[in-house]
Amino acid sequence: MLNIQSLTKRYNRKQILNNLSFSVLPGEVIGLVGENGAGKSTLLRLLATIDKPNKGSITLFDYSYKKHRKEIRKQIGYVPQDIAIWDELTVKENMLFFEKLAYTNKTSEQLRQLCLEMNLDKWDVPVKTLSGGMKRKLNIAISLIHDPTILLLDEPTVGIDLKSKIEIGSYLLKQAKEHNRIILYTSHDMDEIKHLCDRVICIGNDLFYKEILKNSGKEVISF
Ligand SMILES: Nc1ncnc2c1ncn2[C@@H]1O[C@H](COP(=O)(O)OP(=O)(O)OP(=O)(O)O)[C@@H](O)[C@H]1O
Ligand SMILES: [Mg+2]
């Protein structure tokens, strides 16, 4: 279980996240919503150990983010808002490169399979020749190389066509439900949020989102 207690983050003197507390169980998909600048990416960066909170604690299966950073990192798959892959390298080379960095040992064939599961069939072509949606799929495939227990995805479906969006969505659902992974992801697409998420966390306590999600049957937690 992921447990977040009294999490607070300020940049300079600006309060971004104020006293967030919630827990997420394995297999749960949590949507993070809120207006631009609300703090969604900030929360994901804290959970990805890229940034540190000013106050509060995070634990993952009883491992503390403060004390067991190295152990925690092995459990995390993170896809940042800006795609982070090597443009000049091929899909295969990217997968092999990140496999070397990961705490795992996967064959080239296993890595290829991971891409194919996401309907990314390009392999020996430079990443710069891929479309934006294909790059996103590759970035998600990279985040799964080391079988993380928690997947943090910052707008994984932004700017991509409806078919790919549905493919990515159902792939993520499968990752949560069949592999028992915790998924936290941000999106501005409320239909997608309603469809994919078990619960929704609304950052910025904005009534606008609460209203939209009111009759969706989803539990909404506001901060
Ligand atoms: N490294 C930083 N230094 C200073 N301020 C920052 C830093 N990172 C983010 N911020 C500020 O924190 C606030 C929250 O930013 P964040 O990127 O988390 O928002 P967001 O909810 O992800 O927005 P969007 O929907 O536009 O992606 C913004 O006001 C932003 O300017
Ligand atoms: Mg963001």
Brief rundown of the structure:
With 223 residues, the protein is an alpha/beta fold.
What can you tell me about this protein's structure?
The chain contains 8 helices and 10 strands. By secondary structure, it is α/β, with parallel strands linked by helices. The protein folds into 2 domains: 1-75 and 149-223, P-loop containing nucleotide triphosphate hydrolases (Rossmann fold); 84-147, no CATH class. The strands form 2 sheets. Strands 6-7-8-3-9-10 form a 6-stranded parallel β-sheet, sandwiched between helices. It has a 4-stranded antiparallel β-sheet with strand order 2-1-4-5. The longest helix has 18 residues, at 162-179. It starts with a strand and ends with a strand. The mean pLDDT is 93. The protein binds adenosine-5'-triphosphate and magnesium ion. Adenosine-5'-triphosphate binds next to α1. Magnesium ion (MG) is lined by residues 40-41, 81, 154.
SSE topology sketch:
Elements: E1 2-11, E2 14-24, E3 29-33, H1 40-47, E4 55-60, E5 63-64, H2 69-74, E6 76-79, H3 91-101, H4 108-117, H5 132-143, E7 150-154, H6 162-179, E8 182-186, H7 190-196, E9 199-202, H8 207-213, E10 219-222
Strand order of the largest sheet: 6-7-8-3-9-10
> What's the CATH C level of the largest domain?
Alpha Beta
Q: How many domains in all?
A: 2
Annotated CATH homologous superfamily of the largest domain = P-loop containing nucleotide triphosphate hydrolases
Strand residue percentage: 25-35%
Low-confidence stretches: none
Q: How can the largest sheet be summarized?
A: 6 strands, parallel
Indicate the structural class.
alpha/beta
Counted beta strands = 10
Order of helices and strands: EEEHEEHEHHHEHEHEHE
Averaged pLDDT, please? Answer: 93
Number of helices: 8
Shape: globular
Helix content: 25-40%
Distance between the termini: 20 Å
Distinct ligands, ions and cofactors found in the model: adenosine-5'-triphosphate, magnesium ion
> Rg from C-alpha positions?
17 Å
